Amino acid sequence: MTGFTIAPLGRADVPRCAELERILFPDDDPWRENAFHAELDMGHHYIGAYDEQGSLIGYAGLALLGRPPDLEASVHTIAVDPAAQGAGVGTALLRALLDRADEVAAPTFLEVRTDNERAIALYRAHDFEPIGLRRRYYQPSGADAYTMARAARVSGRTA
């Protein structure tokens, strides 16, 4: 893969998102189309990564919760097609979500499987730190999750 672009996720992308969920998360109740539609209906910040042919190869979503100036950001999902993994797609999606959180100086939280070393390394590289453990968070597999947090930032500086 040589290149990709990041753009707002459209409703036409929802079937592909659900397809990727089934591929990537078969043991943990993958999101269905209605879950993505609900996220978009709530106005959450969803973006897609598109290859040079315009095909969706990854997606990510962020919710901003609370009221200014006390907003918090929650990463709801980041997923990358297995064929596109290792090409920087996940990093680009995460950075785009963090840019949105930084626009409103919101601390950012997420959950990640404790056995997903690649994702944990990505989050640590972007200044996330573990702050808790959620036992049996992912269902039906029963996998544990770390809750991780990143301090609020303003223009690239910690707030």
UniProtKB/TrEMBL annotation:
Residues 4-153 form the N-acetyltransferase domain. Signal peptide: none annotated. GO terms for molecular function: N-acetyltransferase activity. CDD domains: NAT_SF. Keywords: Acyltransferase, Transferase. Pfam families: Acetyltransf_1. This is Ribosomal-protein-alanine acetyltransferase. It comes from Gandjariella thermophila. The gene is rimI_1.
